[in-house]
Amino acid sequence: MRVIFRSIFYIFFLEVSVQGLCPEPFESVQNKCYYFELEVSRTWDNCRARCQSLGGDLAILNTCEEFSLLVKHIHISQLEIPDAFSFFVGGTDRGDEGVWYWVDGSPVKMGIPLWGQTDNVAEPSGGTEQNCATLNKANRYYLHDGECDKNGYAICQIDPLPDL
Ligand SMILES: [Ca+2]
């Protein structure tokens, strides 16, 4: 009996501590902290400034697992943005066409499964016209290049709070 109580307590404690890892208004998705801006659309630069004003930056998707968990979260939580809009994340090839970097300076993985396709053409496909990374709503939130000056909705990320 005591073991069961201890297990329940332990699970509860773990749950609370995991929930508590992200500072407001960020929410926990596995062990990452994201904030989804669903009210106001902005240019990529203004999305980035918004994320930085919250103490974070635009989201970085270093692994396929992070990418799939984030997209799954968008679907499961039914995070809705208007059609024809996309989410902005923190990748860009501005300044060096075709060479994609995240805002922390790490390289963006290219190809499947992160990047989507448009009419059987692999993304990114927009050349120098499209230099900012989006999760494209029309393509089930696969990564696409988009115009930096068009408005999108920010996905921000912040480091989890240190364990107390
Ligand atoms: Ca480009």
Automatic annotation (TrEMBL):
Residues 1-20 form the signal peptide. Transmembrane segments: none annotated. The lineage of its organism: Eukaryota, Metazoa, Ecdysozoa, Arthropoda, Crustacea. One of its GO terms (molecular function) is carbohydrate binding. This is C-type lectin. PANTHER family: MANNOSE, PHOSPHOLIPASE, LECTIN RECEPTOR RELATED. The keyword Transmembrane helix does not apply. Residues 29-157 form the C-type lectin domain. Keywords: Lectin, Signal. SMART domains: CLECT (SM00034). InterPro entries: C-type_lectin-like, C-type_lectin-like/link_sf, C-type_lectin/snaclec_domain, CTDL_fold.
